[in-house]
Design a protein that fits this description.
Elements lengths: L1 E2 L3 E3 H6 L2 E7 L1 H4 L8 E3 L3 E10 L2 E15 L6 E15 L12 E3 L1 H10 L27 H20 L1
The protein binds zinc ion.
Length: about 160
């Protein structure tokens, strides 16, 4: 049975495995908006299979999304498509049990966690990127905000080198 939701109805799951396929809007994921270098603005595609394994629900499949990043070196914006393997064993009983509401479990939180783990620490448009910014970042603009901390630490590294010399 195909379901277009990340909520898994346990009554249905008792009868057969469920295929969850669809899109999640970024706002449903409640992702942090304070990261100026990385934003998720497009829907997240999920394709998951849920099956009941005694007192666990096994959910496996893939989630795909596109991150809009600002390169910490050249300050250019770029799109970073990400495809993640999703593999979770969720307990229905015991201390670690997942919350059940209206006979359903909600996978939104788990998908959110996986997406956050996939955020790059220092987004680079290319592993080899060594370009300098095309334009000086405008004052008061958000652009370049994430590169500033990087640049200042680079400045400290330069100072350290001078001291050694
Ligand atoms: Zn770059």
């Amino acid at each position: 049975m195909i379901v277009t939701s990340v909520r898994v109805n346990l009554k249905k799951l008792e009868k057969e495995d469920l295929l969850l396929e669809g899109n999640l809007a970024p706002k449903e994921l409640d992702l942090p908006q304070d990261d100026e270098c990385i934003q998720l603005q497009e829907p997240v595609q999920y394709s998951l299979q849920a099956s009941l394994q005694e007192s666990f629900v096994l959910v496996r499949g893939t989630i795909q999304f596109v991150l809009n990043c600002e390169c910490v070196r050249c300050l250019n914006y770029f799109r970073k498509p990400v495809k993640l393997d999703f593999d979770e064993l969720l307990a229905l009983e015991g201390e670690e049990k997942i919350e059940i509401k209206d006979d359903s479990i909600d996978l939104t939180h788990h998908i959110r966690e996986d997406i956050l783990l996939a955020y790059p620490q220092h987004p680079l448009c290319d592993e080899e990127c060594d370009r300098l910014p095309q334009m000086p970042s405008r004052k008061g603009s958000k652009r370049g905000a994430c590169a500033e901390s990087k640049n200042s630490s680079a400045a400290w590294a330069e100072l350290d080198k001078l001291k050694l010399d």
